[in-house]
Amino acid sequence: MEELQSQDRRAFHIAFIYGLWAVITGALTIPAFVYLLFPPKAKTASAWVEAGDVTQLRPGTPEEMVFRRTRVDGWKVTSEKSTAWVVKLPDSKVVAYSPQCTHLGCAYHWDESNKNFLCPCHTSIFALDGTVISGPAPRPLDRFQVKVEGPKLLIGELERSEPS
Amino acid sequence: MTRRVIDWWEHRTGIETAVKSFMLEDIPASAGWHQVFGSVALFLFMTQAFTGIMLAFNYAPTPGEAYNSLKFIVTELTGGSLIRGLHHWGASMMIVVVVLHLCQVFLYGAYKRPREATWMVGVVLLLMTLAFGLTGYLLPWDNRAYWGTVVTTQIAGSAPVAGPYLTRLLGGHDGVGVVTFARFYALHVTLLPPLTLLLIGIHVYLVRKHGVAPAPNDVAPKKRFYPEQVFKDTVATFVAFVILFTLAVAAKVPLERLADPTDTSYIPRPEWYFLFLFQTLKFFNGPLEVVGSVVLPTLAGLALLLTPFIDRGIMKRVRERTVAMGVLAFVVIGWSGLTAAAVITTPKQAEVSVLDESAPADWQTFTPQELAGLGYYRQENCKVCHGPGVAKQIGPDLASLKNRKTPAWMIAHFKHPQELVPGSPMPPVNLPGSALNALTSFLLKWNTANKKVFDEAPQTAVEGAMLYHKNSCGACHQVNGAGQKMGPALNGTTKRHTKQWIEDHFANPQKLSPGTPMPPYKFNEREMAALVDYLGTLPEAQ
């Protein structure tokens, strides 16, 4: 009888030891995973930045506009200079391209004589509407979100283009 | 399956035998609930290490950045404030449990032959725990951390002979700054943890070597450590953990303003477990101060360390250890009294509102210099960090600040922010002196009541005010009661004259007001429009 009681006590002790340590481990590791894996809360909603005056744009002639945008990097907010190629398309819609070639990220430029964008690195050529004419570029030029308010062009988030 | 895996490892490492011989160690029959504190302390140490590593994943160990990254952890990361809470309260819990452990061993006389070395290593571990608390205190780099550490380094510096060397070691000879921060961080993160781990290893080894101290005349057959005593240790650990977790969830851990060495109103206080030392210091003045700050604590530490050699009598039962009880009671009462006295005499942090009641309520009634200051605030994009209306407040909200700095401080701070607030992420404001003056006068008048002026004042009028200020129009004219009276006061000008007249008058004053000493001004179209706009916004009755 006494032997049995002592067996029960032992089992009870062992069950408690494992149970309590499981609770402690869970209560420490679960918050740690959440802390490490969840993205930071409340990033500033995509701020629109004023880039320039659209009334001076001539249809069919891209212009490189310089603007400052703030970037949130963890606990740091940095203000950095960015550029965009802004084009007034024939249907007078305004678009802004990211200044980097979609192939390997070189800076391309506007080739006035051929009326297209030329990347000096591997001679990717893009049309005025951003589509690939020739070269290794896998997809059209990436575009910034744009908004026109009066004469002002506002630039928003960069959107990655789909492969053509 | 499990058996086979265990056997495989056992065969190669002997791990099973090792764990078994550790867990199944013989302990005296008299062992019990009073001997759980060591295990709890070890558990808390491991929790501190874990949460410390978690914090380090998102912490930038340089002044200023430290503050910003901690703020990021606490406000933007899910679970961040819980992790920080666990680390903060864990430090306090650790002190409590380590001291309870010490009291138990002291009361039972468990330090007696042959366990003197175990005791002494334990005392060093207590000092380690305090050193963790002391160095960790600076790492948030807020006002509390900064000023607390200023006092600590000063005390270390007052030690006879060693003082100056200690100050150098702590990087404090030129005040608390980046060097002190680096030293404290290195101590807290790279030196103390491995050292403590080593000492814990020695401490546990010695406990095992001599066995858990039995009660005198304990002749009952020995029992095994596992599972009964492990169960007791686990329950105690769990209780400690529940308390810690509750504190971390429910009790707010302060993160004050960024450390400000020029904040003369701040009243520094150490962490609660150092308050008794802080209070002791008050009894000693002038040349005797070193007695309270260094001599007494050193003597107390030595007495503690050498306890086994002071009390060399044979083991007695706890109830018969009346002297030990007396000593402990005396220490507890003394400690509580000193701590309570320190708490009671802590003055409330001065939070006097110096809201400038004379500040105008509307932007129209700001002086040109103040409105121009608003213009510079906008132009320099101060808003990005200081607001109003930013999702991520990096600098202080300047309109709501209770204590304003002097204009001289502000201007020095604009030019070299880090010289006045080490580690501040603020870039210098590169503007000419007159513009900085304008910015300063705006910031002195900007408050919670007229905060809205930032959004309300139209940009053209503000630019007009900036031109007005830049061209020192106030040297001859008065606007809103500010400026000289050599020329006419300009409130109401647009009621008296047409826009065209004003523009012509700028271009050629003599033509419209013969004999006027006003020089001609050449403004471009935009500037002219801004100035006329600005004059048009001025209230008439002045």
How far apart are the termini of chain B? 94 Å
Helix share, percent of chain B: 55-70%
Low-confidence stretches of chain B: 351-355
Overall pLDDT level of chain A = 86
Give the biggest sheet of chain A: 6 strands, antiparallel
Low-confidence stretches of chain A: none
- How much of the sequence lies in strands of chain B comes to under 5%
Tally the beta strands of chain A.
Answer: 10
Oligomeric state of this protein = heterodimer
As a percent range, the share of helical residues of chain A equals 10-25%
Strand content of chain A: 35-45%
Number of strands of chain B: 4
Q: Mind sketching the topology for me?
A:
The complex is a heterodimer of chains A (164) and B (542).
Chain A: H1 2-37, E1 49-53, E2 63-73, E3 76-88, E4 94-97, E5 109-111, E6 116-118, E7 125-126, E8 132-134, E9 143-149, E10 152-159
Antiparallel strand pairs in A: 1-10, 2-3, 3-4, 4-9, 5-6, 6-7, 7-8, 9-10
Chain B: H1 2-13, H2 15-23, E1 26-27, H3 37-56, H4 65-76, H5 80-108, H6 116-136, H7 143-157, H8 163-169, H9 178-210, E2 223-224, H10 225-250, H11 275-281, H12 289-305, H13 307-310, H14 322-344, H15 368-379, H16 383-386, H17 407-415, H18 417-420, H19 433-445, H20 453-456, H21 459-470, E3 478-479, E4 482-483, H22 493-496, H23 499-507, H24 509-512, H25 525-537
Antiparallel strand pairs in B: 1-2, 3-4
